[in-house]
Amino acid sequence: MALGAGEFADVAVDPRRGDPRSADFIEQFSSFLQSNSFLDELAIRRAQRAQKQSGERFDLVIMRLGLLSDRHMAKALSAYCGLPLVSENAFPERALFSEEIDAAFLKQSGVLPLADKGEMIELAVADPFNRDGVAAIAYLLGRPIELCIAAFGDIEKAIGKLYGSNGAKPEIDAGSSASAAEASDADVQRLEDMASEAPVIRLVQDLIVRAANEQASDIHIEPREDCVRVRIRLDGILHTIETLPINVREALGSRVKIMARLNIAERRLPQDGRIKVNVRGREIDLRVSTMPTLWGESIVLRLLDRSSVELDFPKLGFSGGSYDDLRQLLDQPNGIILVTGPTGSGKTTTLYTALSLLNSAERKVFTVEDPIEYQLPGVNQIQVQPKIGLNFATALRSILRQDPDIIMVGEIRDLETAQIAIQASLTGHLVLSTVHTNSAAATLTRLLDMGVEKYLLASTVKGVLAQRLVRKLCSNCSQPSPETPRVLRWLRSTGADPIALMNGQEPRLHRAVGCPSCRQTGFSGRTTIYELLTMSEEIRDTISIGNSEGEIERVSMAQGMTTMLQAGLLKALKGETTVEEVMRVARFDTCLNSDTEPTISTAP
């Protein structure tokens, strides 16, 4: 489209383009973007809401939200306005009209002269709605303008390179290792440019949506020597879902960092951030962790989907006499109740479920967490901030002056936190917390090792719940297993009475097979296996005389505690999981007779 200098004001903007803030333009451009697969309906509605709130131009709102990169917006505007699209390859090798036009003006206007065609000037514009900028160029050069569209970032980079003002510095080699020196401004710009490309944006979105839809707990982005491996953790097990070319490594990492508001130039130190996304109406929190490795930054995104968590003990897998004992512990007016297990064993969900039962208008409930994983209505939740001195101990000490009834401490990591928790329980508060140990009995010895006095431990701790998560058998494809008699003998060897524990239910051991509904794994979802140590006079005496973890466990079992292994075998005999799953997560060295061989046939 050629535009004359004298008549520019009348014909500068094609009638089809309109005012980018007008309702007509927004409606027409939205329809165009959706019908040509630039954006889906959900993204368009999001952009329209944001435009109403801010009053910005609709096209700029779309880019600000990250729905389209500047290059994809240029492609969309080119098609919408009927103007040719040009890339960096079409840019001139030397500056044109450098004496007539100031570089700062070109950059501000987002325009770049491409070619002097004698009677007219070919001009690249990022914004076809910029009447004044194009009119000024036509006036200064005294010739008609032929418009093309290019991405703003490409135009800005070319102006800096060709006209010298604000020129770009040489880029760092894309293959630089994570231990390279601090990134230059040009390198930061390069990373931002790569991260703003629509294919990278869509790749990250697709990975998050896929992980959310499959109810994965984590996304692992791992650079290798010649590729980038992407894995997701489903029901506690990692599965590879993508093997990407190595050249997307930096762009992929930079995109995640931008979303998490991390420093994209810092590739030498670990960083932590947070992303909030909406996947089909579900608000999902992603905790981002980056770690420099030999082949680049390893990135892990942990998905926290509040809508997928059911804070209900029976649905989590709690039942029977141990569950009744747990409910009685939670009804105590004071004392300490501890939950133990490795990372990813469901401790936080168990604590949140307990708080959801205890929380009421008559009670004041506080939590101290690192991080706050889910928001609990009516609960005062505190995020620790170590950088400013707000750690577990400091927060807990201050909470005691807030007249609390129930306190949940994310983790007892040191003696100071343990002592304040004990003080809180002695002054009439119920304290819930976690400790990282392998069993319920080991939790008590761990606190003693921290320096807690025996008499304080014995008088304040009411109970310890140790738990693990095992995968549940897929109800569509699991099949009966012939190993039921062997497992019954094994369970009896641990000192348990299968008939009593099964409550008359017929044992029905099953094995995993695999079908499309469970992604050929044979499993779908997870359930909890656990052991609950309830403090008694005998256990207090055992602690007071300094007996070992093993002795504490033997006393607990003698008083009727169902161990984690026994609980797991019971769930296997009920057809909920497999023996292999139980063996994968549970200890079986402390409660088996030495002549019992735990050999179970492996499922295909």
Automatic annotation (TrEMBL):
Query: Which CDD domains does the entry link to?
Result: PulE-GspE-like
Gene Ontology cellular-component terms listed: plasma membrane
What GO molecular function annotations does the UniProt record carry, in alphabetical order? ATP binding; ATP hydrolysis activity
- What are the alphabetically sorted keywords of the record? ATP-binding, Nucleotide-binding
Q: Which InterPro entries match?
A: AAA+_ATPase, P-loop_NTPase, T2SS/T4SS_dom, T2SS_E_N_sf, T2SS_GspE_N
Ranges for the Bacterial type II secretion system protein E domain?
400-414
Superkingdom in the source lineage? Bacteria
| Coiled-coil parts of chain | none
Into which family does the record put it? Belongs to the GSP E family.
This protein's name: Type II secretion system protein E (GspE)
Originating organism: Hyphomicrobium facile
